[in-house]
Amino acid sequence: xxxxxxxxxxxxxxxxxxHQAAICICCAPAIHQPYFPGxxxxxxxxxxxxxxxxxxxxxxxxLGRYAAKRAGANLLGRDRLADIVIRNGVFSQPLIGSxxxxxxxxxxxxxxxWGAAIVFPEAHPMSIDIEEISGRSGEVLKDxxxxxEQQLLDEHFMGNKSTxxxxxxxxxxxxSKVLKTGLTxxxxxxxxxxxxxxxxxxxxxxxxxxxxxxxxVTASYFVYTLVLPRRTDGYINGRTLAAVISGWTxxxxxxxxxxxxxxxxxxxxxxxxxxxxxxxxxxxxxxxIHMAVAVDMHQWIDAADLLL
Length: 308
Fold this sequence. Notes:
There is one protein chain. The chain is built from nine helices and 15 strands. Strands 5-6-2-1-12-13 form a six-stranded antiparallel beta sheet, sandwiched between helices. Strands 7-11-10-9-8 form a five-stranded antiparallel beta sheet. About 35% of the residues lie in helices and about 30% in strands.
């Protein structure tokens, strides 16, 4: 089931107008449980889910759609997730439909046990991307950065190139989603032209698409990027998008769930890890929990510091 979830309305303020959107970020290590698809998927989606032959693909399918449906239900005022259907367009872009028939669109993403989605009005394009920090992005991007992007990487991520490459990847992928091209577009066309830091978060501008900006939050081994119109400011309950997402994703439980990904390969440790996570899920929100987690599959450093 869903271990951890954040789902909120977003107030989008622009000079002369305001809009509403909704965002959902969730962690669901056990989303593939047999009863879960039938509870959230439309009958059309169940056909697509059943056609997938690998557990990983089925899990990604469910993660993205669960997050999209939770965000859609929040924005559209729907109670049953199965009433909302996510279909693919001719370029495999996600499309959202519901009995309410509103002119809304959806952007979704998934990585590991995490899914994220944003539902927004057609008049106000947006997108989201989430990626686990790893060296894979660097292997793809290292020979494809422009001179400007290499300079930005050196300036802002000198001590952590893996995070920097993952940041560039999420920014470019999120922009490609807004443009509805996907990464079929040559990467240099999606060039990042400048970056500013605000309260530890990154705001990127683009050389060829100055009407957009990318807002990036890094927390708990993941990079989250939203692309939205440059002159839009987003707020959740009066707080900036970056502050809310960073505060929620940075809480300690997500670190334990991340650790579980490594421990699953050892049957003797999986039960211990899941038991600890169950306990922490009860106290999550009452305590700020900080754990040092070894990346080695068979080690878990017990260095908890619990603070009221």
